[in-house]
Design brief:
By secondary structure, this protein is mainly beta. The protein is about 10% helix and about 40% strand.
């Protein structure tokens, strides 16, 4: 075939025997080569000038998935990945994303609105025996409340769900059973949350946020347990039943509550939310219909459907850890944080200071000795002070005054003859819990 254009050149060298009808085959005249070079230069110039177009190269074949555009909220499917407004749905392949939020909430800072949800901090001690009246016991921020619920040993346990990064759990062990639950009897495990820490939930507005609870629980008592989220400011609540399916097995429970468009939370340091787990519930709390949507609080609707009496045998035990409360409708992995961070959060509500002493030379009876003690962090409110294991020499009446969010003064009055006087306090508790 005559090679009348650069488009006619062959990729096989033996096929290129002429250029523009100029013979360049084996044995051709020398003048043919000169003329052929000139023709090639002309062809290249025509290509450069655009007067001759080259062939469009044939690329390797490829295929694309069909993008099914949806007109409803079901979203768009691309390469096996369902994308929809505000979320990534069923994912068949790994997806790289630039996130502006996690679960509709912040990426940094503290997602978990619960403090000490991993039961790591236990300033009051790791074990309490013969527990039978409501109080704080071991793990900081967690209180047992109720009445006529038997007797218990409460411990900070090392029994935890495997492979979840937890070192501790809160454990209840029944030591004196109560098989006959009165109508008003109950036992609840709860934490109070300040209103000023909940303002981003926008409760009481049309933009109220949903929240999701997740936690790990283990007990020998299977059955249905009630959970109540109480709005303390507006006497409103929403409740959920969860089931312990397998005895003596760690189980993760997750449930989501819709945002409440009624009842704005106070923006202060008082308790606004009180999540509580029912372990015992008399008929005063169970005889109604469970409040599965936000409603004004009715006593009979708090724990309807709860069918477990955790106090009915001294063989009964109950453990909990990994408690998380976060904005949104999806439970993200537990937000582990450094121990020092959790401790500082807890010390806002309760702290214990050790080895406090003061001495001075007494030159007359009835002199006063005092010293300032600073708290490790700013407290929620002016705390109540408790001094434990106080020893004195030539003084008495050890007490506190001028207590505020930041510290207190400890003082005593000297007694007896002229000489040295001192007091030593083994430990002192500052309590501003909710």
């Amino acid at each position: 075939m005559a090679k009348d254009s650069i488009r006619d050149y062959s990729a096989t060298s033996s096929d290129n025997s002429d250029i523009q009808s100029v013979d360049i085959s084996e044995g051709c005249a020398p003048s043919g080569l000169n003329n052929a070079i000139r023709e090639v230069m002309t062809d290249l110039k025509n290509v450069s000038a655009g007067t001759v177009a080259l062939e469009t190269p044939v690329a390797d074949s490829f295929s694309t998935d069909t993008i099914s555009e949806k007109t409803s909220a079901t979203g768009v499917t691309i390469d096996g990945v369902l994308l929809k407004d505000g979320a990534i749905g069923s994912i068949a392949n790994a997806v790289a994303a630039h996130l502006t939020s996690i679960n509709g909430g912040q990426i940094g800072g503290s997602r978990n609105l619960i403090i000490n949800g991993n039961m790591a901090v236990s300033q009051r001690g790791t074990s309490v025996t013969s527990f039978s009246s409501q109080d704080y016991t071991t793990a900081d921020r967690w209180k047992l409340i109720g009445s006529n619920f038997g007797t218990w040993t409460v411990t900070q346990s090392t029994d935890v769900p495997a492979g979840q990064g937890f070192a501790n759990s809160f454990k209840l062990d029944c030591t004196t059973a109560d098989t006959s639950i009165g109508a008003a009897d109950s036992l609840r495990f709860r934490q109070g949350i300040e209103g000023q820490n909940l303002q981003h939930l926008k409760k009481g507005t049309s933009n109220a946020e949903s929240v999701t609870f997740s936690f790990w629980v283990k007990t020998n008592k299977t059955g249905s347990y009630a959970f109540e989220l109480l709005d303390q400011d507006n006497s409103r609540h929403i409740c959920k039943l969860y089931t312990v399916d397998s005895a003596n097995t760690w189980e993760k429970k997750v449930f989501t509550f819709a945002g409440d468009t009624s009842g704005v939370l106070d923006n202060d340091n008082a308790m606004s939310f009180q999540p509580q787990w029912y372990l015992i519930a008399g008929t005063d709390s169970t005889s109604g219909t469970l409040a599965t949507s936000w409603a004004s609080r009715v006593a009979a609707n708090k724990a309807a459907g709860h069918n477990v009496n955790l106090a009915d045998s001294t063989s009964n035990e109950w453990y909990i850890t990994g408690v998380q409360l976060e904005v949104g409708e999806v439970a993200t992995p537990f937000e582990h944080e450094p121990f020092s961070v959790t401790l500082q959060k807890c010390e806002r509500y309760y702290n214990r200071i050790y080895d406090i002493w003061c001495d001075f030379a007494v030159y007359a009876n009835n002199g006063r000795m005092s010293r300032r003690v600073d708290f490790p962090t700013t407290m929620r409110a002016n705390p109540s002070m408790t001094r434990n294991s106080v020893s004195t020499t030539n003084c008495d009446g050890v007490a506190s005054n001028r207590t505020n969010l930041h510290g207190t003064h400890i003082y005593a009055n000297s007694t007896g003859a002229v000489g040295d006087a001192f007091f030593i306090i083994n430990n002192m508790e500052a309590d501003a819990e909710l």
